[in-house]
Amino acid sequence: MSERPDYLPEHIREKLFHDPRVAEQDLKVDVKEHRVLLGGNVSSLQLRHTITEVAQELLPGYEIVNETTVVPATEPEDEEPVS
Amino acid sequence: MIRIAAVGDLHYGEGSQGILKPGLEHLPDRADLLLLAGDLTRRGNPEEIQVLANELRGLPVPIVAVLGNHDYHCGREAEVRRALEGVGVRVLEGEAVTVDIDGVRVGIAGTKGFGGGFRGAHGSDFGEPEMKAFVGHTKMLSDRLERALTGLDGVDLRIALLHYSPIEGTLEGERLEIYPFLGSYLMAEAVDSAGADLVVHGHAHHGTEKGRTPAGIPVRNVAQPLIRHAYSVYTLNGHREVQPAAAGGIS
Q1: Which of B31, B86, B96, B241 suits a disulfide with B3, CB 3.0-4.6 Å?
Q2: B114 interface with A at CB cutoff 8 Å
Q3: CA–CA distance, B239 with B156 (Å, rounded to integer)
């Protein structure tokens, strides 16, 4: 993995996407000094925890700040007449 | 009136048990049909789709699905398809199915679709083999979609079920740089040529729910991270209102 900070966030994003435990394309990754900020939508709290663990494995010496949001999957409130 | 429930981009993994099931509890009271707009798994593993299949098993409404790009990742899409079919889901790829709902014949033509971009900025099947393959795949699936829609004779309603988007309108909110990977106008052209009452797609998690094709056919982006519900419900009256677009010409 490149040591250049310019490319590190994209490398992390790509590795998270290709990790079978995560496979989430929508994550946003920002790295500042030794702090990794994760954003985007995830489908469950469990996946959110897994993403933190995998990110920590990828960058052991970094602080992982996971600000991803768990998307609700509740019943819709109404329906839309289309025609 | 026909009530269509639709959702895409569920991205089920092996640990996704129970994410959707509570939200489906009252679906049979609220919808006549459930459409699944692809990306049902994270990586296209049979183990992943089985988790979702278990949650769909026994739902007393017809379920029709297309697969998405994630469902192809492991190269085991045939197994993904079979797992869905094993619980009664009809999976479409360049095919159509007709569902009778209280005497109203609802025809659904489905394809994953593919990318390429939109009018004025669409890729061409020119140059490297990879580029020819990319755009050629979109052309092939769009042609199949048009044939499948056209073949739905005698139905009261026609629905096109896609994963990739046929229009830019439902992509608003996504980064412009990735539009060519989110859809293609060729699918909109297919739908406008054949005629339809509704187009449903997923894939664009950060897009917009509502749009229309150039001929005015309603398009709905039902990517779950966008609609933020277990599904959306659209109601249609049982008589076709949108006819095939008149053949155009260059004058």
Answers
A1: B31
A2: no
A3: 5
Q: Give B219's DSSP letter.
A: E
Give yes or no for residue B97 having a pLDDT over 80.
yes
Residue with tokens 């009271």: B29
Taking alpha carbons only, the member of B189, B236, B207, B210 closest to residue B9 is: B207
Q: What value of ipTM does the predicted structure carry?
A: 0.92
Give residue-wise pLDDT tens across range B212-239: 999 999 999 999 999 999 999 999 997 6
Looking at CA atoms only, how far is residue B168 from chain A in angstroms? 19
Window B:207-236, CB contacts with A under 8 Å: 218, 220, 224-225, 227-236
Q: Is B219 left (phi over 0), alpha (psi -120 to 50) or beta?
A: beta
The HSE-up count of residue B24 (CA atoms within 13 Å, CB side) is: 22
Closest to A83 (Cα-Cα) out of B28, B180, B235: B235
C-beta separation of A82 from B234 below 8 A: yes
Q: Which of residues 171-210 of B touch A (CB under 8 A)?
A: 197-198, 205-206
pLDDT in tens, B11-31: 999 999 999 999 999 999 999
